[in-house]
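CORE FACILITY INTAKE
Project code: CF-77B
Contact: R.S. (postdoc)
Sample description: multi-component assembly, two entities in total
Requested service: structural model of the whole complex
Turnaround: standard
Below are the sequence entries exactly as provided by the requester. Do not edit them.
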Amino acid sequence: MAAKDKDRFVVALAGNPNAGKTTVFNNLTGGRQHVGNWPGVTVEKKEGTSKGGSLEFALVDLPGTYSLTAYSLEEVIVRDFIAGNKPDAVVNVVDASNVERNLYLTTQLLELGVPLIVALNMMDVAETRGVKIDVELLSELLGVPVVPVVALRNRGMDELTETIAMALRGEAKFRGIQVLYGREVEEEIAKLEEAIASDEALEKAFLGKYSARWLAVKLLEEDERVEEDIDRVEGPDAPVMKRLEESRRHLFTIFGEDIETVIVDNRYGFVAGIVREAVQRQREGYASRSDRIDNILTNRILGFPIFAFFMWLMFFLTFYLGKFPMRWIEALVKGFSNLVSTNITSPVWLHSLLVNGVIGGVGSVLIFLPQIFIIFICISILEDTGYMARAAFIMDRIMHWLGLHGKSFIPLVMGFGCNVPAVMATRTLESEKDRMITILVNPLMSCTARLPVYALFTAAFFAANQGTITFSLYLMGIILAIAMAKLFRKTLFRGESEPFVMELPPYRWPTAKGTVIHMWERGSLFLRKAGTVILAGSVIIWLLAYLPWGVAYGSSASIAGKIGHFFEPLVKPLGFDWRAVVALLFGFVAKEIVVSTFGALLGGGTRATISTKLQAIFTPLTAYTFMAFTLLYTPCLATVAVIRKETGSWKWAAFAVGYSLVLAWLVAFFIYRVGLLFGGK
Amino acid sequence: MRLGDLEPGATGTIEKMECRRQLRRRLMDMGVVCGTSFSVERVAPLGDPMELKLNGFNLSLRKEEAGDIWVEVPCE
């Protein structure tokens, strides 16, 4: 976690998922935000700066959570950040239309003993639902400032920043209210507290961060993290752990159910007490607009066709509409390339490096930028409206059968467009396992960059059945993705599948600001990558094709050519020669480069002449084998870079490359050999 | 009765949760505790998962998971 600036205040945002935390964050920080990952994990971390009066402070958006248990990564991040980094204030965004459940988290934030400010969001929705909240009384009962806001309409934000500023100046009132767990439990808490406080090693290890009471409550809740931490410091025979065992036994005989439930019930009891006093409900059983929309969108008969339509629309917008700006960028890159080409002619190597390496490589990847932006606008809208949760709801039955989660579906479908945004889209998945599997099998979904390869080869060898052959490749990718997902689930990512316990948030209109920010933060991530990893990769490939000095670019005598010859024995069993190796090697930068490489290797010419020349080195059987290999072998450079980024490790990026190479070889070998058996050539 | 056996339109209260510890805690943290009343809103087009309404919000869970939750349904 970033070290806290001494002279800068840090404020954290916490709250339930769908409580409007992100909207509050966007309102307070505007464009001044930075997206990264929490150290060591793939959970997104957002930071920005904001101002309250003349006071500037850093705002950290914590993951949305319902609780602060040790069960989920997000919840551990929230409590570790609050306890370890000691932010100067924590703003708890509470959905006013759903106070009970939201205040349950508030009680746990209060227990952490931080200066808490409650931002009571969606007051307007609450009112239309007939919920009236006495804000002053609520503030009195919670012992912290409460600010009513409507984040979507940017209302109440000034009051909120003023309150934050007051808290930072030490002028806000915090009464430090605690949830009480009833006499029997409190007695045990007191005993445990004493055992913790009298243990010097524990005091040194924890008490700067957590209070003895908090640790005691967590121990009673059977919090695995706290138990492990104590184990590490004291070993399993610590007096505290002995005390804990006695307490648990004692309480179990009294309540007849586990203490975790007793504690949770007490927190809800505390919340219920507050709600009884400060909240008035005028209407019960109100069917909201959202329910009426759902009667259509998740309808048993209409649900699927509507979902399919939205998917189609997303594809259409991304890949059809995206084509136009793509052409402009292509033209721009070409123009730039020509400009460089005519102006920097010597030395020759520099000319080649710039034109073939840098511009050729980075340019071929930059072309995807419009698609990436459009797809993220679509995803952002799907998420912000609340439809994404419904899509998962509709698709879960099928995805569960694959050992995945309903939310895996959209990233997989997007893979047909481009694996890069598709891998990024897995961010919507909460389970690390589901996410890893979805990322790893994603490159098997045949992206549009592979289409030019199919187009070239089917035209040359299967002119009569181009469509069928191409379709068979897509189908092969899907079947292998399913098989690999099942395999990974059974081997690398074993264990119970993630339960599908998900809130279906009310439908909301997305805001233009939120959508643009969302789109920009993901799109710019890709841009940055184009400037770094992809640039480096392109230069390396160029070096391979250019060196040693004086040989023709990418020819048999170049390093790339030599690599081709070197690996020829490896692809011989598949019916390929060295030129295929070179094409595939270059295709690593972007798969459509396979086509242009063949163009160069075969001495160029029109599409028709290349077709004829291809027929000299491939047969229909080896051509099909080659297409299958191109489909399956290693994700392209941009995808590998994104996998590295999204999984947080080179290990998984390397694994994605490794397993797909092996898979490609095996499948190609199978196709070729079986084809030979049946009399193919 | 088990929650997983209920049809859309049914209402009742949560009686007992026999789910795995982690899942049970997750449900409790979301407000599914004993005594909570709920209604079954709908099931997904493919028959699973199901959607409940409780405490003013909508929750979806698989029938498999709902099978471990015992509920009390008012007599007709």
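Facility notes:
- The radius of gyration of chain B is 11 Å.
- The helical segments of chain B are 21-29, 63-66.
Invoice: internal transfer
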